[in-house]
Amino acid sequence: MAYSDKVLDHYNNPRNVGTLDKSKKSVGTGLVGAPECGDVMRLQIEVDEETGLITDAKFKTFGCGSAIASSSLATEWLKGKTVNEALTIDNMDIVEELHLPPVKIHCSVLAEDAIKAAINDYRVKNGLEPIKFEESIIH
Amino acid sequence: MEELKLPVYLDNSATTPVDPRVLETMLPYFTENFGNAASRNHSFGWVAEEAVDYAREQVAQLINANPKEIIFTSGATEAINLAIKGVADMYAKQGNHIITVKTEHKAVIDTCKNLQKKGIDITFLEVQPDGLINLEELEKAFTPKTILVSVMFANNEIGVIQPIEEIARITHKHGALFMTDATQAAGKIPIDVQKTGIDLMTFTAHKMYGPKGVGALYVRRKNPRVKVTAQIDGGGHERGMRSGTLNVPGIVGFGKAAELCRLEMDTESKRLSELRDKLEQALLKLEESYVNGNTQHRLPHISNISFKYVEGEGLMMGFNKNIAVSSGSACTSASLEPSYVLVALGLDDELAHSSIRFSLGRFTTEAQIDYTIEQVANAVNRMRELSPLWEMHKEGIDLKTIQWSEH
Question: How confident is the model over A75-91, as pLDDT tens digits?
C-alpha cells in the first residue's frame, strides 16, 4: 500500500516532536495505545490560563507512518484552539486530511483518543471533572 | 569501489528475480517449442516432454533424488497441500494424527487446521527461544495413530535450520512419514533426501531465481515407497498425483535455476553469509538491537533483527523508497498481531513489532550492504527520537509498570 503525499510529508518532517514539562499545571498529557499493539502515542498540550488557548502542543509516537502522521497533524491543529474547540477534532477529519486507507483508520482514532486524554489530564490537574467520552468505535 | 545500484532488494525470502540465464533457457518454450508435454504423437509434444524430463533431472539432482520422485506443481503451497492432505487421505486406515510446529509457514498451518475440521488430530509443537524444536517434546508427541511429521527445513522469517536428520530418524522410529517444507532452504544449502531420510519435501522455483508459478513435491519411491492421494482430478499427469497440463516453460526455468544453485552454492553461500554478517554486526552496534533466532543453525542469507522501542512498519518507511525489506509488524486494523513466528519464540509483542527481516540474494552487492547499514541506522536513530517508549527507557522507566490503555 502506498502512502499519501501528506502522510509522507508528516513522516519526513514531523511537526512539534518533543516533550513538555508534565509537572506543570498548565500542561496536559495523553498517553494512549500499547506497545504490544504496535502503537503508542503521547500527546501534550500547554494551555494559557488567561485566554484558555492551547499555546503549544508536542507529540512522540511509536507506530507506523500513519500513526506518526496522525499525531503530527493533531498537534498542528491543536495549537491556537481553545480546549473546547480542540474537543471537536474528529478522527474522520484526520482520515480525510491524510487520505488514510481503511486499514489505517485506527491510527486516527488513537490520535483523537490522545487529544481527549491530554485534555482530561489538563482538566483534572486544574480541579475540573474529567469529561466522560463514549467508547471509541474501533480498537 | 563498486557502483551502488538502487533500489536495494533485501527481501529475497519473499521472492527472487529470475536469473537472466534462467529466462534465456525458458524463452523458446513459450514460442517455437510450445508443445504439450502430454502430446505423445508429434514432435511438438516430444520436444516439450524431453525438456520436462531434463528439468526433472536438474531439480532431482539438487536434492539427490531420483527424477521419478519429483512431482511438479504450481508452487510450494500446492505441493504442501498435496503432501499433507494426500498423506492424510492415503494413510487414513493407519492413523489420523499429524505432528507439526507452530512456526511453520501458513501453507502448512492452515492445511493442518483444515484437516483438523475433518477429524484429523494435529499437534502443533512449541519451539525453543532460538526457534529450534525440542526433540524430546517431539518424541513425546507421537501416538500409535501418528502418520506424518511435518517440520520445515528452515524458517522463512528467521532462517533457523531444524535438525532435519534427527527429526527424520525419530519419526521413522515411530513408523510415521517425515515431510519437510524446504521452500527457503532448497538451493541455498545442501539438501540430500537420501542421507537425511526425508520422505516428502516441498520447494519452489521463485525463491531460487526461477519463475513464479512452479514448484515441486519430492515423494520417496523406495524405503519406504510413499504414496499420496491426488487432490486435483484430471488427466493423470505426474504419475497420477497431480493432474493438469505441465507448465513447460516454468519447469524448464525451475530446472535451470536448480542447476545454477547447485553449481554456485558453495561460493554463493559463503559470499552471502559474509555480507549478512557484516550487515548484522554493524546494526547490532545500535543500542537495544537483538538478533531473533539461533545464529549457529541458520540460512546464510537471512537476518532478523529487532530494534527495540521503534515500530517495524514506521521504521521501514524511513528507507523503503530505496531499500526493500519486510517487518514482523503489521499495523492494520484487521491484524494488530505481530508475527506469530516471533511470538512463538517467546518474544514480547513489542519486540516482535520492532523486527525487520533482511534477506540477501544473488544480486546483493557489498556497496548495497554498506548503504543499507547507513540508512537503517539513521532511520532507527530518527524513529527513536520520535518514540515515547525510547524516551521512557532512557529515563529508566520500566515499560511493564505502565498501565497501557486497552486497545
Answer: 999 999 999 999 999 99
